[in-house]
Design a protein that fits this description.
248 residues; mainly alpha; 8 helices
């Protein structure tokens, strides 16, 4: 049985229809999982004995923070691929992920502020984790601004990729900040090496919301990369046929 030639999908012409076929599946899964995760988090999970009902914002805050970091690592990975193998599609994928990653970083900071007010008595403190997450948001914005400032797409690919790869050092700083410094931010409630420090319903909601956030990121990134492909490949014969109603 012949294997599937996955390398053909490195071509924008081949990846464009594949991305279009995957978007509805990931978007639908993200919507369904979000409803399930929020229902468990807001109506099934017990009230926290210390923070009361205010803690429920973690079901949005924590998945958003996880996804902000994970999306940046994935974006940097695509940037590395684009630099090493000089592939256009990898650079386009990195470009497509950045806005959604920036959105997750903003949501993490925004919901963290609302969680911090009843917990710490302030919307913002210059805590190591909060500050490094703010830097992550600036890295996303800087990546997008640098791309927009360079007219030549290939030069923009290279310059923004270098920025993304330099900035990836901030991700482990965010993750380990509560261990390396004395911060107000609580330690991890979910660990790969220790039992969870929360009720099963709380953990289930948080993990479901994290998967929903990842599926949403995939769906939006695929939709965005299709738009980027059409802009950057507009001169190609296959793109012109697709726009005119034909199929490549």
């Amino acid at each position: 049985m012949a294997g599937i030639n996955w390398f053909k999908y490195a071509s924008p012409a081949s990846f464009y229809p594949l991305a279009g076929s995957m978007i509805p599946w990931f978007a639908t899964a993200a919507a369904v999982l979000t409803v399930i995760g929020l229902y468990i988090g807001f109506f099934v999970a017990p009230t926290d004995y210390q923070q009361g009902e205010a803690y429920r914002i973690i079901f949005i805050h924590v998945p958003a923070a996880w996804m902000a970091m994970f999306a940046y690592v994935v974006m940097a990975g695509w940037c590395a691929v684009s630099l090493i193998w000089n592939t256009r599609l990898a650079a386009m994928m990195a470009q497509a992920i950045a806005p959604t990653g920036a959105m997750w970083a903003f949501i993490a900071l925004w919901t963290g502020a609302f969680w911090g007010r009843p917990t710490w008595g302030a919307y913002w403190v210059w805590d190591a984790r909060l500050t490094s997450t703010l830097i992550l948001l600036f890295l996303y914005l800087g990546y997008m601004a640098l791309r927009a400032a360079i007219d030549d797409p290939r030069r923009a690919d290279r310059a923004s990729a270098l920025l993304a790869l330099v900035g990836v050092i901030n991700v482990p700083i965010i993750y380990f900040s509560v261990k390396w410094w004395n911060t107000l931010h609580q330690g991890a409630s979910v660990s790969l090496t220790a039992a969870p420090k929360m009720a099963q319903a709380m953990l289930a909601s948080m993990l479901i919301m994290a998967i929903a956030a990842w599926f949403y990121t995939i769906a939006t990134s695929l939709a965005r990369v299709r738009a980027i492909i059409m802009v950057r490949e507009a001169h190609a014969e296959w793109a012109q046929r697709w726009v005119s109603g034909g199929r490549a």
